[in-house]
Amino acid sequence: MPASIDGLLLDMNGLFRHWHNTGAHTSEQLAGLPKGTIARYAYGHPAYRLARVGVLTDQQWADDVAERLTRDYGSAVRNSLAAWRADRGEPDPTMIDLLTQVRQHMPVGVLSNSTDALRTDLQRHRIEFDYVFPSAELGVDKPAPIAYRTAAERMGIPTQALAYFDDEPTFVQAAKSVGMQAQLFNGAESFVSHLHRLGLPVQYEKNSHQPHPGPTTS
């Protein structure tokens, strides 16, 4: 039996939000860019790491992406990036419902390698956590042990009394290294099974939810 827990700490992307990159693909088609170009310029560039740890704001990083694309592909590209920026991923209604249930029993935090746009995105998707830890605010990203320790300290819960879930094995290993009861996230059903073993009486019915409306493009 697992030790008792006093709270949950969860990853964001892959659990509560899924990215399909439809906005980036639309922008690439409008600009006549090869597929995957925006991802390479946006997420494969060192500037993204700077935004993830708070050196750059989300807007400064996006402006840098636009500047580099414009320099290499022409000024018309800049006017085609609105769809990429408007795409904030697709929320997962099943996981959001489970989150609401868990919060009735204990506090839940989210620890995400993200820019300072995370809080706005959570509001947009109507996802509510008790604690929100974007790496941009912490000044450090996963898998650095201090990221997990800082989140636990701010929640006021010892690492040993926190359960952590992430879909990235490296991040799970890092959470275990600081004493958290960490598990690899493999979907909602597996998540619920782990919660039951932790003593949380959540209810889950497969395919019982309608798709959550996606973000607006304004």
Walk me through what this model shows:
The protein has 218 residues and is α/β, with parallel strands linked by helices. 44% of the residues lie in helices and 12% in strands. It has helices at residues 22-31, 37-43, 46-52, 58-73, 82-86, 93-102, 118-125, 135-138, 145-155, 169-177, 188-197; strands spanning 7-10, 17-18, 90-91, 108-112, 131-134, 162-166, 181-184. The strands form 2 sheets. It has a 5-stranded parallel β-sheet. The chain has a two-stranded antiparallel ribbon with strand order 2-3. It is elongated and about 60 Å long.
Shape: elongated
Query: Which residues sit in consecutive blocks of at least 5 with pLDDT less than 50?
Result: 208-218
The proportion of residues in beta strands is 5-15%
* Percent helix: 40-55%
Q: Which radius of gyration do the C-alpha atoms yield? A: 18 Å
Q: What is the rounded distance between the termini?
A: 49 Å
Residue-averaged pLDDT: 93
* CATH topology descriptor of the largest domain: Rossmann fold
- What structural category arises from helix and sheet content? alpha/beta
Which strand order does the major sheet show? 5-4-1-6-7
Biggest pleated sheet:
5 strands, parallel
CATH class category name of the largest domain: Alpha Beta
Keywords:
218 residues, alpha/beta, Rossmann fold, 2 domains, two-stranded antiparallel sheet
Explain briefly what this protein structure is:
The protein is of the alpha/beta class and 218 residues long.
Q: Helix and strand layout, with pairings?
A:
Elements: E1 7-10, E2 17-18, H1 22-31, H2 37-43, H3 46-52, H4 58-73, H5 82-86, E3 90-91, H6 93-102, E4 108-112, H7 118-125, E5 131-134, H8 135-138, H9 145-155, E6 162-166, H10 169-177, E7 181-184, H11 188-197
Parallel strand pairs: 1-4, 1-6, 4-5, 6-7
Antiparallel strand pairs: 2-3
